[in-house]
Amino acid sequence: MRKLLALATVGTVAxxxxxxxxxxxxxxxxxxxxxxxxxxxxxxxxxxxxxxNFHWAPEVVHPWxxxxxxxxxxxxGYSWGAGFGYETGTGLRFDSTIDSxxxxxxxxxxxxxxxxxxxxxxxxxxxxxxxxxxxxxxxxDLGGYSGGGGAFAYVGAGAGVAWNHAETSSPxxxxxPVPTGTNxxxxxxxxxxxxxxxxxxxxxxxxxxxxxxxVNNAPTDETAEGYYEVHNNWIHEVRxxxxxxxx
Length: 247
Hints:
The chain is mainly beta. It has a single domain (45-246), classed as Porin. The chain has one helix and ten strands; from the N terminus they run αββββββββββ. It has one helix at 2-24; strands spanning 43-56, 59-62, 67-70, 75-87, 92-110, 118-138, 150-169, 181-197, 201-216, 229-246. The strands form two sheets. The protein has an eight-stranded antiparallel β-barrel. A two-stranded antiparallel sheet has the order 2-3. A hairpin with a 3-residue loop joins β8 (181-197) and β9. The termini are far apart.
């Protein structure tokens, strides 16, 4: 009985002593570590664009008689289009676009003393589909742009196809007016500009140099006098774009 009483006394003292020692240790606050936000995230977007343009080309080639006429006046017009794209959040973005491009005023003058002398003016309507890549960078430190808001600049390039419809205004009274025609050609673009990021909406304005390899009036017979080709067309545009992000 005495042994049991002694054991009970020792256990009670040990328990009370342990509680007293535990009470002496300080209590530390719980620290919550937040998730790291690298400010990098991708998003899809829709875009719409409109532009005024200036159409340049060096000459009009006439394969039938192996001659060419220098272009004396350059064209002007407008374009509008839409697209769908994806931005990676690292400064890189990609999109596909389709644009309706119109110009008028590209002109040659024939003055060789022939019945068909006079001014010939081209009216061009093209549907241009391009796959594009861009790099956006912040204007403050010229670093990678991750869509964090504010002003930015961009450069870009694209490649694709142009479906061309060409009509020519011939001089009054010529024996045979130049036939209308259509063709498909390789196309490309270079781009640069500045913009402002408002979150879901992004606006920019910039330059686009649209290249169309060849415009001609097929299916006119290439051996016929009325067939022509216009190579190395550059359509210089001042273009505004609005993008809407799906976040």
